[in-house]
Write a structure and sequence with these properties.
This protein is mainly α. It has a single domain, classed as Four Helix Bundle (Hemerythrin (Met), subunit A) (Up-down Bundle). Helices cover about 70% and strands about 0% of the residues. The protein is built from ten helices and no strands. Helix 1 crosses helix 3 and helix 4 packs antiparallel against helix 5. The longest helix has 28 residues. The radius of gyration is 18 Å and the shape is globular. The two termini are about 30 Å apart.
């Protein structure tokens, strides 16, 4: 099942790992591997990338960051193939993402002369960027006929566990999810509280917005690591946030 119907599909620049994700999911669909096993696997790939950065193996780090993006696409694909969507998998995926983002930046900070406060600011910035993308994307998915609705526009209430998952686990993961993402969600919602009223987001607008998708953010980091620009990763991620103001301003002015 696609997350969007054909009319609402757009070129997602952050979703370059989807083909590999589908390939891996098809390999695993008749095995005992579950989507959560795949989520853990992309977490391992991310931690290997962190280890490589700390040991200044930057090209290898870039490879494992890109691999992480590909595996990250596979857990959702596997859930759709096995028809086992779950809130626990959806929240665990997001929790792994935010912690890995933090670890990537901490590792970069450790091997450069970047001030600690700049690293924290860069982390805040990339999370805010990703939250803007997810905010508009989830709105589009919920409006799209036949689209995926596992993710909600407003995550304020613990969902009821789906068949095959435990409510206690959903409760725990939802609590962690709201703790680590809640502040970013509130900021973006405050900046554009009426976005959900828009009839639709043009495909070209969503393509531009996907520059803030996690996959594209990681691609930027991987490319900069591989070509020796590690000292510029954190400053760039901070400056990259200027698009937030431009995208929200454009949406409010022209997309209703």
């Amino acid at each position: 099942m696609s997350k969007l119907n054909s009319k609402d599909k757009f070129l997602d620049l952050s979703d370059y790992g989807r083909r590999f994700g589908r390939f891996l999911a098809n390999i695993l669909k008749n095995t005992n591997f579950t989507p959560i096993h795949v989520t853990i696997l992309f977490g391992v790939s991310g931690l290997i990338a962190v280890y490589c950065i700390l040991n200044q193996h930057y090209f290898l780090a870039a490879i494992f960051i890109i691999l992480k993006s590909g595996i990250d696409a596979a857990d959702g694909e596997l859930a759709r193939l096995k028809k086992t969507p779950s809130y626990s998998g959806r929240y665990l995926d997001s929790i792994f993402d935010i912690f890995l983002n933090f670890f990537f930046l901490v590792a970069i900070w450790k091997v450069t002369n970047i001030p600690f406060w700049m690293m924290l600011l860069a982390f805040f910035c990339i999370q805010l960027q990703g939250t803007l993308y997810n905010y508009y994307y989830v709105i589009l998915r919920n409006k799209s006929i036949g689209g995926d609705t596992t993710s909600k526009i407003f995550e304020y209430k613990t969902p009821k566990a789906l068949p095959g998952e435990e409510q206690k686990l959903v409760n725990t993961l939802f609590a962690i999810y709201t703790l680590v993402y809640g502040g970013f969600d509130k900021i973006i919602h405050a900046l554009d509280s009426t976005a959900y009223k828009a009839k639709a987001f043009p495909n070209w607008f969503m393509t531009i917005l996907s520059l803030y998708g996690l996959g594209f953010q990681l691609l930027i980091i991987a490319v900069m690591l591989s070509i020796g620009l590690i000292n510029y990763v954190i400053p760039f991620l901070i400056l990259y946030s200027i698009l937030i103001v431009l995208l929200i301003g454009f949406r409010k002015t022209y997309i209703h």
